[in-house]
Amino acid sequence: MGVSAACRLAAAMLTTVTSIRLEALRMFNRVALLVASLAASLVLAVGLALAGFVPASPAPSAATAATAAATDPATAAPPAPITQIDTVYVAPQATPQQITIQKVVTTHHSGDDGNESGGD
User: Fold this and answer.
1) How far is residue 35 CA from its own chain's centroid?
2) Which of 50, 74, 88, 90 has most Cβ atoms within 10 angstroms of its Cβ?
């Protein structure tokens, strides 16, 4: 084996090791992203549960509810209330009468009313 063959072998081994490291790094990144997304989903679910957006129990299916209503009248939904519409008539307001107020103002003039008594 000559020097050039040894160099080629070393270069090939270095390339292989480098590519294995890159693949391991990519795999590590994939696993890290998976773990981070699961943690984020868990945090979101806990936050929604604490805020009250998660129902306490799952809703029963329509078939289960229909079967229960048919077999047990105590659990059947109560009948819908009957709505009665009443018509109420309101008498219109009477039109207000127009009232006119006239003020009469009398003025008093001192000395000009013609009833002066003379001092002769």
Assistant:
1) 31
2) 50
CA distance 65 to 58: 13
pLDDT along the chain (120 residues), means of 10: 70 74 81 92 89 68 58 69 85 83 78 56
Does residue 120 belong to any structural domain of this protein?
no
Q: Is residue 63 part of a domain?
A: no
Residue 108 lies in a domain: no
Query: Which of 87-92's residues contact partners 24+ apart within 8 Å by CB, and which partners?
Result: none
Instruction: Round to whole Å and give the CA distance between 6 and 8.
Output: 5
Q: Quick one: which of 22, 35, 51, 19 has its CA closest to 11?
A: 19
76: CB partners within 8 A, 6+ apart = 68, 69
Provide the pLDDT for residue 39: 93
Cβ neighbourhood burial of 28 (10 Å; 0-12, 13-18, 19+)? exposed
